[in-house]
């Protein structure tokens, strides 16, 4: 008897790798991202992924500010 450690609800047969934090298909025995990497390489991979996530968050903020600026300009033009 074995219980699934990671019950996949909507992931469609992918699981999160404990080592590098990326997702890989459950059909694979090992993570296809880090199984061939050494510990230091996995560490730099994790850092890169974290940076990319931070970059996306930053991009989202920039878009919000741009949208606010455009809205303000439109308001100024309309209310004049
Ligand atoms: Zn991995």
Show the helix and strand layout.
Blueprint lengths: L13 E3 L6 E3 L13 H41 L1
The structure holds zinc ion.
Structure description:
The structure is a single chain. This protein is mainly α and 80 residues long. The chain has one domain (14-79). The protein has one helix spanning 39-79; strands spanning 14-16, 23-25. It has a two-stranded antiparallel ribbon. β1 and β2 form a beta hairpin. Bound molecules: zinc ion. Zinc ion is lined by residues 17, 19-20, 22, 31, 33-34. Keywords: Membrane, Transmembrane, Transmembrane helix. The chain crosses the membrane at residues 59-79.
Care to count the β-strands? 2
Chemical compounds bound to the protein:
zinc ion
Order of helices and strands: EEH
What portion of the residues fall into strands of 2 or more residues? Answer: 5-15%
Rounded to an integer, what's the Rg over CA atoms? 21 Å
- By DSSP (H or I, 4+ residues per run), the number of helices equals 1
**Biggest sheet character:** 2 strands, antiparallel
Oligomer: single chain
Distance between the termini: 73 Å
- Estimate nothing, just give the exact number of structural domains: 1
Structural category is mainly alpha
Shape designation: elongated
Low-confidence stretches: none
Strand order of the largest sheet: 1-2
Whole-number mean pLDDT: 87
Q: What share of residues is helical?
A: 40-55%
């Amino acid at each position: 008897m074995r219980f699934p450690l990671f019950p996949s609800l909507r992931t469609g047969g992918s699981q999160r790798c404990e080592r590098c934090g990326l997702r890989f298909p459950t059909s694979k025995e090992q993570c296809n991202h880090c199984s061939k990497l050494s510990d230091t390489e996995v560490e730099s991979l994790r850092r890169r992924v974290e940076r990319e996530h931070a970059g996306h968050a930053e991009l989202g903020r920039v878009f919000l500010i741009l949208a606010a600026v455009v809205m303000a300009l439109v308001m100024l033009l309309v209310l004049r």
